[in-house]
Design goal:
The chain has 266 residues and is mainly α. It has nine helices and two strands. It has two domains: 87 residues; 136 residues, Serine Threonine Protein Phosphatase 5, Tetratricopeptide repeat.
Length: 266
């Protein structure tokens, strides 16, 4: 169509050129030429209008496609931003959880260390300790030492009834295997002597002597037996006890005291 219009224009140009040079055309031919020229011009205008509309439609379509693509791109960017924000929030949440777990772990480790120290301290309290008493070295449990020291402290305060009960309880609790047995019997006998329970005092002093004949308290126990016998008005038994003491332990202080008393009893 465009080519045809172009041909018409060329024809019209040639027509007018020929008319100008020759001036020989008739009116009918001129009108026919003008008519053809108008038709060609109208067709050209129609074609141009069509081309314009096609161009505008193409531009509109291209603009619409660009707008749609831009909308899709913006939607994609928005989705990406939303996903990024969600990821950031998740990372922040995980970081917070990690920090909480780290604090909890540190606190658990601290408590475990404290508990271990407490266990170690308790074990040390339960471990036997070395005791030196009345010339004897032996191992004793911490509670055992505590109970003996407590009973002896009561005796030294002059509370002899309470001391007697404390030593009886100690001997019942720890039995014959305790390293404190001989010393506990000695102080129990002294507490009983102080409250004038002479018979039981003699019994416990003799238990000490028979169970631990090499104990350093044996001479004192033999002298205490003679004192109990004198308090019970049994001078014959007291003399015999003094004689046995002077013979068995002549160099001891108790042995010397026995000799002096025997000399006064003659």
């Amino acid at each position: 169509m465009l080519r045809k219009c172009t041909y018409c224009l060329v024809f019209a140009g040639a027509f007018w050129s020929g008319f100008a040079h020759a001036g020989l055309f008739e009116d009918d031919e001129a009108r026919l030429a003008i008519k053809d020229l108008r038709v060609a011009t109208g067709e050209l205008r129609a074609q141009l209008e069509t081309n314009r509309k096609l161009s505008e439609q193409g531009l509109l379509d291209e603009s619409r496609r660009a707008s749609e693509e831009n909308s899709l791109l913006r939607k994609g960017l928005l989705d990406s931003q939303n996903q990024l924000e969600l990821l950031r929030a998740e990372v922040a949440k995980l970081r917070g959880q990690f920090e909480v777990l780290a604090r909890d772990l540190a606190e658990a480790q601290r408590r475990l260390k404290d508990d271990q120290q407490l266990v170690d301290e308790r074990l040390r309290k339960l471990e036997p300790i070395k005791v030196s008493l009345d010339g004897k070295d032996f191992l004793a449990e911490p509670l055992e030492k505590r109970d003996f020291d407590s009973a002896l402290a009561i005796f030294r305060k002059g509370e002899f009834d309470r001391a007697q009960a404390a030593f009886v309880d100690f001997l019942n609790r720890y039995g014959a295997n305790t390293g404190y047995r001989a010393s506990a019997l000695f102080w129990l006998g002294n507490a009983q002597y102080a409250v004038k329970d002479y018979k039981d005092a003699i019994t416990n002093f003799r238990l000490l002597i028979s169970a631990s004949p090499d104990h350093m308290r044996v001479p004192e126990s033999m002298l205490a037996i003679s004192n109990c016998q004198l308090e019970m008005k049994d001078a014959k038994a007291a003399r015999k006890s003094l004689e046995e003491l002077a013979k068995a332990f002549p160099a001891s202080e108790a042995g010397q005291a026995a000799k002096e008393r025997l000399s006064r009893m003659k």
